[in-house]
Amino acid sequence: MANLTEVKVPDIGDASGVEIIEVLVSEGDEIGIDDGLIVLETDKATMEVPSSDVGVVKSVEVKVGDKVSEGDLILKIEASSDSSDDEIKSEDSSSKDEQSEEQDDSEDASSESSSADKNSSGKNSSEEDDSKKASKSKSSGSSRSEAITIPDIGDSEGVEVIEVSVKEGDEVEEDDSLIVLETEKATMEVPSPFAGTVEAISVKVGDKVSQGDEIGSMKVTDTGSNEDDSDSDDSTDESSQQAEKETSVKDEPMPKSDYKPAPVAVAPYERNEGELIHASPAVRRLAREFGADLSKVKGSGRKNRILKEDVQSYIKFELSRPKATANSGTAASADLPEIDFSKFGDVEEKSLSRIQKISSVTLQRNWNLIPHVTQHDEADITELDQFRKSMKEEAAKEGVRLTPLAFIMKALVASLKAFPTFNSSLAADGETLVLKKYFNIGVAVDTPDGLVVPVIRDVDKKSVYQLANELAEMSEKARDKKLTAKDMQGSSMTISSLGGIGGTSFTPIVNWPDVAILGLSRNQMKPVWNGKDFEPRMMLPMSLSYDHRVIDGAVAARFTVHLSKMLADIRRTIL
Amino acid sequence: MSNLHAQVVVLGSGPGGYNAAFRAADLGMDVILIEKYATLGGVCLNVGCIPSKALLHTAKVIDEAEEMSAHGVDFGKPKFDIDKIRDYKDGVIKQLTGGLAGMAKGRKVKTVQGYGKFTGANEIEVEHDGKKQKVTFDNAIIAAGSRVVDLPFLPEDDRIVDSTGALELRDVPKHMLVIGGGIIGLEMATVYRALGAKITVVEMADQLIPAADKDVVKVLEKFIKGKYENILMETSVTKVEAKKDGLYVTFEGKNAPEKPQKFDMILSAVGRRPNGDLLDADKAGVEVTDRGFIETDKQMRTNIPHIYAIGDIVGQPMLAHKATAESHVAAEVIAGKKHYFDPLTIPSVAYTDPEVSWVGLTEKEAKEQGVDYGVGKFPWAASGRAIGVDRKEGFTKLLFDKKNNRVIGGAIVGVNAGELIAEVGLAIEMGCDAEDIGLTIHAHPTLSESVTFAAEVYEGVCTDLPPQRKKK
Q1: φ, ψ (nearest 5 deg) of residue B215
Q2: What integer pLDDT is reported at residue A230 of this predicted model?
Q3: How far is CA A201 from the centre of its chain?
Q4: Which of A341, A478, A565, B341 is buried most, with the most CB atoms less than 10 Å from its CB?
């Protein structure tokens, strides 16, 4: 067999414990370099982790909801080798097809395309058959697929599933709880009959099951001798039931304690209908005092009891989040009445993208917490523009697309040096200012999914060409969702340019923890009085929004005047 | 007419009133407590809970001494000195009310004796011995309680008393009629029977203590049946004729005796009504219902935001411990705390012999509310402790929500049931399920074990009973 390569989480900035929101590949997929493997969600944006290798995915070690940090194992890739191709495909079958319930065979159709094609499994039945045959004939015996069926649960028929404890891809030990059933008498866990990886779970909460019902399949890894594959279908069925009967008789293991210390801030919890709210009188009093709705608080205590700490965490969360964008944008306005727009005509609902949801929360927070003032000014960039145009061709020979923004960044750094408070952040206590000695400029980039702000580092130490190149790179990365959390951290100040589109001025929202943001509108040739007559000058409208707690109006005005000067004659920046 | 003013004026000094006054004072407010009687404590301390329990203690010792004669210890026929029994009871009252006066003083709560009535939204006029005094307030807490319901057809006669009169213990009649088979009537019946009276109880409903579950009360009924002269269920009194040689009572109903019966004393205990109609509350703008209740929100606030009401006057159950809990809420809300009266349950206890107690949902209520519940019932016949004290008639019953096995109610009948119910109340408030209670180790041998066992019975894991039939 070919060698296995481990693919790990690359440098994702300072972020650790970042949540996986999507897994783009499944076992058996062929992948190439830079193919997206998983999508992470940091507090800034979502980001795709690309593959660093070529090959076939042998095993996916993570699942949606997992929290990962740099260096964590994502998956194992087997370098492509023709001989083992079929085998891998057949063994590591996977399917996200929801219709898998109908397939009584435990092996789902394997996906042949290299990308995670969710539709592939149902596309061609003959292909499926082929791959099944392949799996039977070529299975090495080191692992096999087993159906999971409901063991003897007494006389009960049609018992309700109240919890599904595992999901596809989970590694389980023998006797680990797979699902929880509720009989008239009690709730009972259905233990895993094998150790292995869950391939599919075909039941969901609320389904009714009886003894013998198939609830999914598992990939079981045997350490022992090869099974005879030819009649594995029948024999495994029996043996698995046998095993289930045995395990169901055994004492169930102590459930793992899922008690965790209450986290700092906990988002509202969506309680299932009829789910118990479990809070002692003192906890109820605390909730009353703060008007916390206990039905939205998840209990971290024994048997999901709501503890004082849970209420405190919930209150912390409620205080820390902007009210109007409740629940990361899903309940966009808790305080506003719901309106049935369809009364007025045809409507269509479209959910916000993840980036939009995230930025709606941060934008709302920044808008609420920072007292904004916007200073408008115009900079005369006639000479700058002439110079840039004159250099354009030369730059192009160097492979550089010379944009005004690169120059403006340089000018901005000069102004930041002259006005250090603009390159600062207000400490959490609101009483100290953190002055930064670095000059990193964030640039707002509009992507189809929403707004992201990559940061260009050490602008003061870089040439205009370098900056222009980096800008281009970052924009591309942003559009390809390749930005890492680190790419979007550590700005001194941010530039938001709408110059390419139009407008005369706007009020950008300060990108906290920055204390100021420079908005640029479309430059225009305007008649400017030079003392004797009107002269046509190229004027750039600038809108500087700033945190008034940190920056006074007069200073802001001086700042834009200074910046205008720098832009009017870019040579000043090297003085 | 002098003027007094306080941040908080409390009208009535029963358990609701004095606790409200003390809590408010402890929270730094200046407080005036208005009480029409010379002693603090209201009905509960003076003519209710406390004196009745003193007398019930006497009754218990008498009964237990008599029971022991069957087990080889004969104390002989008891001799009663009714004056000394009364003195004992009065001493208990005095000790407690005196203690209250001291605690009021220690908190600098000013007490004003007299009958208080509202004369405005911030003003109460207190009348005492013909003298009037104006008391103005920023906030008021109405804790004016309830009074006995009078039966209009009862003639004026010394031999016809209410609970207050019965507690005076003037003498012990030969034949006593108790009208009303509720808690108060049965407690007094217990006392008078122990002192030698022959008791007849008449009750309109088909069971004693109608609020409790039938199976619980059945135990009490069975226990007192042979001891009382008569228990007339589904029967009512239609006429009482006071003659020199006795009170002739005419009955009507299912178990009514044909001829009028002669009694030496009648206790009328058919319930209590709120005193909302006696306060001129309308002059303060406070709304009073037709039945005399004053309605409040969960912070005990009446329709007038700075006037609060607590205790019997705001609604059922008319129990001192409910008033006390409400009193703290009212005082704390006035002090600016965002507290609410938010209990899951309030326990009820009949201090009869045997005692009957319940908390949370009764089976009756659970059925009415359509709750899918299960029962764990532990008969005290299997309790070593109960057998040891020769009182194995009782049982402990717990109700569980079948959905989550959480305890939603409990009822206990037997000696000390009133003490034992506390644990069930705590379990309900803390959201315990059957397993939690079953796994909590209780001392052996105690009656409190029966609570654990009841939970185990529900779970099917009790080994102190014959093997249970396995639930399907």
Answers
A1: -65, -30
A2: 43
A3: 25
A4: A478
Q: B190-244 pLDDT, tens per residue?
A: 999 999 999 999 999 999 999 999 999 999 999 999 999 999 999 999 999 999 9
DSSP secondary structure, B114-156, as one string: SEEEEEETTEEEEEETTEEEEEEEEEEEE---EEEPPPTTSPP
Tens of pLDDT, residue by residue over B319-372, are: 999 999 999 999 999 999 999 999 999 999 999 999 999 999 999 999 999 999
- Which of B406, B429, B436 has its CB closest to that of A276? B406
**Inter-chain contact A288–B429, Cβ cutoff 8 Å?**
no
Among A29, A26, A24, A28, residue whose Cα is nearest residue A90: A28
Window 163-222 of A: residues touching B by CB (8 A cutoff) are 184-186
The CA distance from B301 to B329, in Å, is: 10
Q: Name the token pair of A274.
A: 């009829």
A281 and B429 within 8 Å at the Cβ level: the answer is yes
Q: CA-CA distances (angstroms) from residue A511 to A353, A355, B48, B454?
A: 20, 15, 69, 62
Structure tokens at B65: 């001494």
Cβ-based contacts under 8 A for chains A and B: 39
pTM attached to this predicted model: 0.56
Ordered DSSP codes for B350-415: E-SSSEEEEEE--HHHHHHTT--EEEEEEEGGG-HHHHHTT-TT-EEEEEEETTTTEEEEEEEEET
Which candidate, A79, A285, A484, places its Cα nearest to that of B429?
A285
Strands (E), B173-260: 175-179, 198-203, 230-233, 235-243, 246-253
Asked if residues A547 and A372 have their Cβ atoms less than 8 Å apart, the reply is yes
| CB A140, CB A92: distance < 8 Å | no
**Residue B403 sits at the chain A interface (C-beta within 8 Å):** yes
For residue B340, give the nearest of A274, A278, A288 by CB distance: A288
Give the gyration radius of chain B's Cα atoms. Answer: 24
Q: What is the pLDDT of residues A285-329, one digit of tens each?
A: 889 888 888 888 888 888 888 988 899 888 888 777 654 443 444
